[in-house]
Write a structure and sequence with these properties.
By secondary structure, the chain is α/β, with parallel strands linked by helices. The chain contains 12 helices and 14 strands. One of its GO terms (molecular function) is oxidoreductase activity, acting on the CH-OH group of donors, NAD or NADP as acceptor.
Length: about 350
């Protein structure tokens, strides 16, 4: 028998993992060999954060170590697979992490222990892309502000004045910073609206960008030309504070900034100042430098800001897709097939 720990949470439910594993295992003819244990982590009701040296994790190390006793394989979205957890779980040989980046796993420790780690690239791409475009529409057309005012009994007819009227996506120039799975889908949606789409991504092939109907641009050129800038880059040392105050000041007056990627890409103090002094027209934010933001943050009181609590990837399809991708990887591991989405180096142990 193969003992499998399912460390789900209140988004990717343990039942979603179990159903996906059984479906893939049945097709591969190995479902009778599986035995499950389940753990439900407290996210999202309790925010994730750093745990024992890994990032964006949920739950306790002690609880996870207890649950992993004798376990051969584990699947999760947010459990903290730190060095201490991996070293305390000698039977473990596979970890499947149902998210686009396995930041809650110490990959070096896993490799040293001979544990394969797999992840789920693109699992939330469609949800996040749709949400990003929704944020753009909300910021450019007063959707949330008008709703809030009307719910309080205030009819904001002045939003129809020329001075206050929003812009259309058709004919607007939108700059995308980052052109991975999410950025590419956002680009397709914006092109359908009739936008001109500029892309800054040093890792994207120029010929592929032109083939998609978007235009490559340096960061400076993108900032100077865009009515709207939407962030879709991964957070790395290279991209940390990519939009700092100097970069934000290069945006044309009245420009709109959208961030549904990672808070660390953007200088939130500078953003707040430039929104307050009128240099920037609006911002739409789903991620923050500190999550949740402080209740006394000036950003929360600005009238030209659309805010949401890190919801871009929150669709039921994302949850099912994430569970299915790592379940398929688990079955590849069990049957000796090469992993499609291995995240760590292969290191054999004696």
């Amino acid at each position: 028998m193969v003992d499998i720990l399912i460390a789900g949470d209140n988004f990717i439910l343990p039942s979603l993992f179990r159903d996906a594993i059984l479906a893939h295992a049945t097709r591969a003819g190995v479902s009778d060999d599986l035995r499950f244990r389940e753990l439900t982590l407290p996210w999202p009701q309790v925010p994730f954060g750093p745990v024992d040296g890994v990032d964006e994790a949920s739950g306790s190390v002690e609880e996870l170590i207890d649950a992993l006793d004798g376990v051969d394989a584990a699947v999760t979205q947010l459990a903290p697979f730190s060095r201490s957890v991996i070293e305390a779980s000698p039977a473990l040989r596979f970890i499947g992490i149902s998210r686009g980046g396995p930041v809650n796993c110490d990959l070096d420790a896993a490799s040293a222990a001979g544990v394969a780690v797999s992840f789920a690239p693109g699992r939330n791409a469609r949800a996040a892309a749709e949400y990003a475009v929704g944020l753009i529409l909300a910021a450019t057309r007063h959707l949330t502000a008008a709703h809030t005012e009307l719910a309080r009994g205030v009819w904001r007819g002045d939003y129809y004045t020329y001075e206050n009227a929003g812009i259309e996506l058709s004919g607007s120039t939108v700059g995308l910073i980052g052109y991975g799975a999410i950025g590419r889908l956002v680009g397709r949606i914006l092109l359908a609206f009739g936008s001109r789409v500029l892309v800054h991504d040093p890792y994207a092939a120029v010929d592929d960008l032109y083939a998609d109907g978007v235009e490559p641009a340096s960061l400076d050129d993108l900032l100077a030309a865009s009515d709207i800038v939407s962030l879709h880059a991964r957070l790395t040392p290279e991209t940390t504070l990519l939009l700092d105050e100097a970069a934000l000041r290069r945006l044309r007056p009245g420009a709109v900034v959208v961030n549904s990627a990672r808070g660390g890409l953007l200088d939130y103090g500078a953003l707040t100042r430039l929104l307050a002094d009128g240099h920037l027209g609006a911002a739409a934010l789903d991620v923050y430098d500190v999550e949740p933001p402080s209740p006394d943050s000036e950003l929360l009181s600005l009238p030209n800001v659309v805010l949401s609590p890190h919801l871009a990837g929150a669709s039921r399809s994302t949850a099912r897709r994430g569970a299915s991708i790592v379940a398929e990887e688990l079955v590849r591991h069990l049957t000796g097939a090469p992993l499609a989405h291995r995240a760590n180096a292969e290191v054999s142990v004696s």
